[in-house]
Design brief:
The complex is a heterodimer of chains A (233) and B (269). With 233 residues, chain A is α/β, with parallel strands linked by helices. Helices cover 33% and strands 17% of the residues of chain A. In chain A, the strands form two sheets. Chain A has a six-stranded mixed sheet, with helices on both faces. The chains are: A alpha/beta (233), B mainly alpha (269). The complex binds adenosine-5'-triphosphate (ATP) and magnesium ion.
């Protein structure tokens, strides 16, 4: 049983796209497919100039992930290292070799950039805290800092505001919005917050049971238009 | 599936049904156990005859030898035993780490050839230490070097297996996150897996040190250095007080090592 079916979409560089859908609709799976993290049973993906079906080749993986910042729904922090080390790990595909393994090994500039990214997500003073001692929202922000520290040209963020309080949630969405706007970086995020989807994205795509049921500019949409996405027919 | 007609919900049996295959296996196992007991376990008569002889042997072993020259020689041998255990464990862990990585499912840089690393680890682990000791005594001659090589192989077999299991069980989400960031296999190993597995690695290493101390005590029996040599000759020359002194010393050393590793474990936890 394929999880996604007949999903076809085209996202332009610099576009800000919100992906919405009920629990289990396939949002996380779609994002993973785009990054080549789960093999495609059919169809193909063209992303950041690389086209693959099945799984990307080793060369494609390297080229693609170098320009990618991925925020996972469950954060995926290395639990027993510090917040700073986790953000330094964001450089792991940038050719720093073992110097991106841990903040102790990192070059001065990388450590400074990592510190700046932590400050950008409002966690500057927590750089030394071990990841498994952070609150849910703090851990989420470290994951976001790790995904943006190397200045990716595509940010894929799976429910980046899910564990954030309302103020932190809008701060983070504003940060993403600004990053995407300023550097021509593409942003694709999922959210269960319809206000976030409508106000921080140029375009909203809704998934239902693995297929696209709505794809429209956010300026043409009202919250009422999004209601059917979450309800049975 | 069975359905309860009153609720039309599937019934959830508390115990999965007993299948005939499992039942037959249990019976066969029981029969094997009974047959084995008959062959090799001492009969009550034999036990009755042996008990007094054991008593008189114990009597001849006491009191333990206290001759200073002997105790000095024994202390040197004990020191050698601990050295074999420490050096062997250290190098064994160094060898086991890459072996574990190469054998770990989903992490190995060898891809489908990871079974080769698994085979090496299995070979190291399943061949008993005394057999390895015989092998190394033949290869490098009598003495402590053969003992250390034995402990290296023993430790690599033990840690190679448990390190690999810990690596495979390490947190998948952090591994996936680094993968998405373009990490190579070696990056994932050192940035995500090693930090996550550190407590488990340390525990396994301390446990393997305990095993190594116990192992290195008996290696001397086949000529691979350490206190075992003294013990063997004491028994062969009927010097029972010396034997009891050595056994007491072994008891103290092994117990001391267990206390030490327990203390280290508590410090780390
Ligand atoms: N590793 C997996 N193995 C098998 N099935 C999976 C796996 N991950 C997800 N699925 C299935 O794929 C479907 C879509 O899951 P997915 O995580 O993409 O949903 P989602 O839209 O992100 O939901 P949520 O809003 O709860 O995060 C679900 O039915 C889920 O059971
Ligand atoms: Mg999801």
């Amino acid at each position: 049983m394929p999880i996604l079916n007949g999903v076809s979409l085209d996202i332009r560089q610099g576009e800000r796209v919100a992906l919405i859908g009920a629990n289990g609709a396939g949002k996380s799976t779609l994002l993973r497919c785009l990054a080549g993290l789960v093999p495609l049973s059919a169809g193909d993906v063209e992303i950041l100039g690389e086209t693959f079906s099945g799984s990307p080749s080793a060369r494609q993986r390297k080229a693609l992930r170098r320009q990618l910042g991925f925020v996972f729904q469950f954060h995926g922090l290395v639990r027993r290292t510090s917040a700073l080390s986790n953000v330094v790990n964001g450089y792991i595909g940038q050719g720093h070799g073992m110097r991106a393994w841990h903040q102790m090994l990192a070059p001065h500039t990388v450590r400074e950039e990592a510190r700046a990214a932590l400050e950008a997500v409002g966690l500057g003073e927590k750089w030394d805290a071990r990841a498994d001692t952070l609150s849910g929202g703090q851990s989420q922000r470290v994951a976001i800092a790790r995904a943006i520290v190397h200045k990716p040209s595509l940010i894929i963020a799976d429910e980046p505001a899910a564990s954030l309080d309302p103020a932190a949630g809008s701060d983070i969405m504003t940060l993403f919005h600004r990053l995407a706007g300023a550097r021509g970086c593409t942003l694709l995020f999922t959210s269960h917050d319809m206000n976030h989807a409508l106000s921080y994205a140029d375009r909203v795509i809704a998934l239902k049971a693995g297929t696209v049921m709505l794809d429209a500019a956010s300026s043409d949409l009202t919250p009422a238009d999004l209601e059917p996405v979450f309800h049975g027919d | 599936m069975a359905t309860d007609i009153r609720t039309e919900k599937p019934v959830m049996p508390r115990i999965a049904r007993l299948d005939p295959l499992r039942f037959a296996l249990a019976v066969a196992l029981g029969a094997l156990l009974v047959a084995s007991i008959g062959e090799v376990t001492p009969s009550p008569e034999r036990l009755a005859g042996a008990l007094p002889r054991m008593g008189s042997l114990l009597d001849r072993m006491l009191p333990p030898e206290t001759d200073p020259a002997f105790l000095g020689r024994m202390a040197m041998r004990l020191l050698e035993t601990v050295q074999i255990a420490l050096a062997g464990t250290f190098f064994g862990i160094l060898v086991s780490f890459p072996l574990a990585w190469c054998g770990a499912m989903g992490l190995s840089p060898l891809g489908p050839f990871r079974w080769a690393a698994r085979m090496v680890v299995s070979l190291f682990r399943t061949v008993p230490d005394l057999v390895w000791a015989l092998f190394f005594v033949s290869a490098v001659g009598l003495g402590a070097v053969a003992g250390t090589l034995t402990i290296i192989v023993d430790t690599a077999g033990f840690c190679g297996r448990f390190f690999a299991e810990a690596m495979e069980d390490s947190d998948r989400q952090s591994r996936e996150a680094l993968d998405a960031g373009g990490a190579r296999k070696i990056d994932i190993l050192f940035a995500a897996v090693v930090p996550d597995c550190m407590p488990s690695f340390i525990n396994t290493s301390l446990f393997s040190l305990e095993l190594a101390v116990r192992s290195s005590v008996v290696l001397g029996i086949v000529g691979a250095g350490g206190i075992g040599q003294e013990l063997k000759s004491a028994f062969e020359l009927f010097q029972y007080p010396k034997a009891s002194a050595i056994i007491l010393a072994i008891f103290v050393i092994v117990l001391g090592m267990e206390q030490l590793t327990d203390w280290l474990r508590r410090r780390i936890a």
